[in-house]
Every structure is written in structure tokens, then in C-alpha cells.
Design goal:
The chain has about 400 residues and is of the alpha+beta class. Helices cover about 40% and strands about 30% of the residues. It is built from nine helices and 21 strands.
Length: about 400
């Protein structure tokens, strides 16, 4: 049993009739094999077609031992069926795949970079190049060369060739098969062994746009968009640029300058805020130190504070540098925190103390002898934990 693949001769065929010649279950879903089909199965870097067989939705298409299997949403009752492709998906794949052939050869022509892998995703396609040393200028040169081929409207044809005919063709790379070799030709520019679907003229690719490049070891992964995808991306970027221009009350060309001014102002404001925070931390630490409860030659600071945890840590650091400091801070909030620390000349084990305090407040925590941190379930529990810690410290001789 084998399937006649109608897309090989006519990739523009959108509807067809066929007869069911096999049935099975694949991944828990019904699947049928037809005597002929226009549905392309996943392979060669190109995803499968979707569409319908009569009223049943085709959700996947695979090939096994020369037979194309159509995986369906529900079982087909009859044997004579009418197939209809999701044409927008098929044509998108034709644009992307032909664009890949053109772009891959453009990289060969402009910088002698061979394509070692190709993947067509739902939103973008990628090629992996066999060298990773290509910068923005090389990418731009390859993109320009590819779009020049599109502008020149080269015919795109496919044919099966013999080994003798194959030897006469300037293939971009050797075929992976030895029989039924199909060569797709972008006239005068690229010859590639390929079983995928392609547009009939390079102009139908519309546009090739490289949108990203990422080094992966000794290879470079290039992300690109063709045709409708490139136009949709341009529309997205235009909407983004228009929105920014409106937000800054300037022309689109003036947006980069407006962003740079805003960034400069933001850096200055962040520096001013950092300076003010440092002054506040030092002033607050000094005030707390003067109000601290004395214990022999030491001072005990035990407070609940309603500030961010990072700011509370800065307060603790500012206090612990003072000789004899014992610092126990509780940070109020949805997830109350305990921060305990001490001066270097204090022998108290803050890790043990915090574990005792956290347990009193039904929480958990621990740490080093000089710095410990933990948490309790509520602000009320925070007060209980701090009271327990304060009582233990003040009762110790």
C-alpha cells in the first residue's frame, strides 16, 4: 500500500477526492490512509498540513513506509472522501520553505556559510549555519542578496532526476536519499534536493527578513520571517512605533532620542533616591541606637518595621557596625520576615536566637552566629516572635 502524493505535482491544489484504503488509531485518535492526498506530512523541516476530510478535521499528517496517514478529530464513516486544505497554512509554509532555500543560498554566496539545519515554527523559521563568526554586516548582506532574488521574480520548479542528471546540477548540498530524488530549483540561483511544497515564483515569497541571530557553539542560528509573516511583523512594529511616538508626543524618528533622555533622567533619579535612602538609613539607625535598651555594655534594638526587606537589611547592616549592637528586626507584610544580627564584639548566637523566636511565632528560620533570617505566618506572630527574642536577650546574664 502506498499513497499518491498530489502536492508533489501541484502544490497549489486545495481540494481533492480520494478513497480510504486503511484505518488505524494513532495517539488515541482515528487515522485514515487514502489512495491519494494533497495533505503534506511533517518532514524535511516543514510542518504538516491541516484541513478537513468531509466533516472531520485533520489535526496531523504523518508518513510511514510510504503511506500518508491523516489523523482526525473523529472517525470517518464512509470510504469516499473530499479533502480540503487549510490554504492559508499551506501557502504560508510554501513561502517560508522557498524563502529558506533562497536565504540559505544567499549565505553561501555572500559569506560561504552552509546551512546545516532548518526548522519551520508556527511563528518564525530558523536555519543553523555552519559558522558562528557572522556579524550584523554579514547578516544584512545575505538578507539583501535574498531579497534581490525575490525582486528578480525567478521561476521555482521541481523535478525528479536520475543520478546522471543529478551529477550535472550545482546542488547546494548532497541529497539524503539515493532514490526518487526531487530537486527544487530557484532558476539560476539555487538547486536543492527537497520534498517540500514551494511557491511557483520567487516573487511570491514577498519578503525575507532576518529578525534574530544566536550563537550556538560553532554554529549560528538565524531566525527569519517570509511573506505574510514578515508583513504581519512590520505591522506589529509600526503599531509599536506609533504608540511610542504618541506616548512621547514626538515623531517616530524622534522616539530613540526621547527614550535616551528618559533613560538619562531615570538614572539620575535612581541615583538621587539611592543617596536619599542611604541618608535615611543612617539617620534612622542613629535614632534607633540612641533609643536602644541598654544591657551592660551592649544595646538591644528590637523593632517591627513596615519597609521593604532589602531596606530593613540595610538598617540592620548600619546598626551592626556599632560596638555592642544586638539587632532584632521584624519586617511587616504579607510574608513577615525576621532579621537578626549583632556586632562582632558580641558573642550571642543569633542563629539559635532566631530559631527560638521563630518557633514562638509558629515560623521557621536560622542562620549564622552573626546573621540569621526567618519568617512567621502573620504580623501578629511577628510581635510574638520579637517579644520572645527580646525577653531571652534581656534575661541572659
Amino acid at each position: 500500500m502506498s499513497t499518491e502524493r498530489l502536492y508533489i505535482q501541484d502544490p497549489y491544489l486545495r481540494e481533492f477526492t480520494a478513497r480510504v484504503v486503511g484505518r488505524q488509531t494513532v495517539g488515541g485518535k482515528p487515522a485514515v490512509a487514502l489512495d491519494r492526498t494533497a495533505f503534506y506530512p511533517t518532514g524535511g523541516g516543514q510542518p504538516n498540513d491541516t484541513g478537513t476530510l468531509d466533516s472531520a478535521r485533520v489535526v496531523d499528517v504523518i508518513v510511514a513506509d510510504g503511506v500518508v496517514w491523516h489523523i482526525l478529530e473523529f472517525e470517518l464513516p464512509g470510504n469516499d472522501v473530499r479533502g480540503i486544505l487549510d490554504w492559508s497554512r499551506r501557502y504560508d509554509h510554501m513561502q517560508q520553505h522557498t524563502g529558506q532555500h533562497i536565504l540559505s543560498q544567499a549565505f553561501v554566496v555572500t559569506c560561504e556559510a552552509e546551512t546545516v539545519a532548518f526548522h519551520m515554527g508556527a511563528d518564525a523559521s530558523t536555519i543553523d549555519l555552519g559558522r558562528a563568526d557572522l556579524g550584523p554586516d554579514a547578516l544584512a548582506a545575505a538578507e539583501a542578496a535574498a531579497n534581490a532574488v525575490i525582486d528578480a521574480a525567478h521561476s521555482v520548479t521541481a523535478m525528479f532526476v536520475t543520478q546522471e542528471e543529478l551529477a550535472q546540477l550545482p546542488l547546494r548540498k548532497p541529497p539524503k536519499v539515493t532514490e526518487a530524488i526531487r530537486v527544487v530549483q530557484v532558476a539560476g540561483f539555487d538547486w536543492s534536493a527537497c520534498g517540500g511544497t514551494h511557491v511557483a515564483n520567487s516573487a511570491q515569497v514577498g519578503l525575507i527578513k532576518i529578525v534574530g541571530a544566536e550563537r550556538r557553539g560553532g554554529e549560528l542560528r538565524v531566525t527569519f520571517l517570509c511573506g505574510g509573516r514578515a508583513r504581519a511583523d512590520y505591522a506589529r512594529l509600526q503599531a509599536l512605533a506609533s504608540g511610542l511616538a504618541m506616548r512621547f508626543s514626538c515623531a517616530q524618528d524622534e522616539v530613540p532620542g526621547a527614550v535616551e533622555r528618559l533613560s538619562t533622567e531615570s538614572r539620575a533619579i535612581r541615583k538621587d533616591l539611592a543617596d536619599l535612602e542611604a541618608q535615611w538609613v543612617e539617620a534612622t539607625a542613629a535614632a534607633w541606637w540612641s533609643e536602644a535598651a541598654p544591657k551592660s555594655e551592649q544595646r538591644v534594638i528590637a523593632r517591627a518595621v513596615d519597609v521593604p526587606v532589602e531596606r530593613a537589611k540595610k538598617l540592620a547592616q548600619a546598626l551592626r557596625v556599632r560596638s555592642g549592637a544586638i539587632v532584632m528586626l521584624g519586617v511587616l507584610g504579607e510574608r513577615p520576615q525576621l532579621l537578626f544580627t549583632r556586632a562582632d564584639d558580641v558573642s550571642l548566637n543569633m542563629g539559635d536566637l532566631l530559631r527560638t523566636a521563630a518557633a514562638a511565632g509558629r515560623g521557621r528560620g536560622g542562620g549564622r552566629p552573626d546573621w540569621a533570617q526567618g519568617g512567621v505566618p502573620s504580623n501578629e506572630a511577628l510581635d510574638v516572635a520579637l517579644d520572645a527574642a527580646r525577653a531571652r536577650v534581656m534575661s541572659d546574664e
